[in-house]
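Working notes for the structural subgroup meeting. M.R. asked for a predicted model of this chain before we commit to crystallization trials. I am recording the input and output together here so anyone reviewing the notebook later can reproduce the run.

Input as submitted:
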Amino acid sequence: MIDDPMDRIAAALERMAPAPLAAPDFDMATAFVWHTEPDRLEPVEKVSRVDLDLLIGIDRSRDTLLQNTRQFAAGLPANNALLWGARGMGKSSLVKAIHADVAATHDALRIVELQREDLPSVGRLLNLLRGATQRFILFCDDLSFGHDDAHYKSLKAVLDGGIEGRPENVVLYATSNRRHLMPRDMIENERGSAINPAEAVEEKVSLSDRFGLWLGFHACDQDQYLAMIRGYCDAHGVSIGDDALRAEAIEWQATRGSRSGRVAWQYFVDLAGRKGVPLR
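Returned structure, recorded in token form:
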């Protein structure tokens, strides 16, 4: 028996333009990851993060973002935030730690991780979040744009919201190593080759201006580096004398050619392993 041609056409159209995705149960987790192909929000049972008290040397950024997040969780006005600066200095760790800290007293606060590569789908994600009763930190880690990269246009849907406006229950926190989200040589090249240099990069450079908060992260000094490691040791019960810790940590730093919170944690992981202390 031959199916009705109209039925076959209808089925094909449904495959090409599937029905809108149903919103998940946002009470099943406090953290989600957005995936595409197919669109879905997957709950995260356990978020990889450190305690807020263990993030050393970023007090001003911590206090500013913490206050902004508390306002947002309480239903008050809050800004999108761009955390930019030195690698390994706790930008993404701060976002996750602050979410955990504020969610402990505001049980409707959620965090949703969005990959830079999935920015073109952000409109569909916002439609899912717009009608929910929960409040969402949309987290985009390591955000930057290269040559001929048009993904930044999708980001404007979150920052400006278009004709509908950004959902009242969504705020964007993004991290980047670049203050203007694009390479310096790209800015200079476009300025130098354009008929109107100012207009050539204004659209891309002004993207960072759309974040209400700019929080800078800079390389730590040696005392802060050592204090980070001592904090990890105390928190996880790893015993080592100050002189031994200082000598080993400085040598570790020298072999890595850099000093940061990430390097401090990597040394501590090695130390805990040598001391036979599991990390949970």
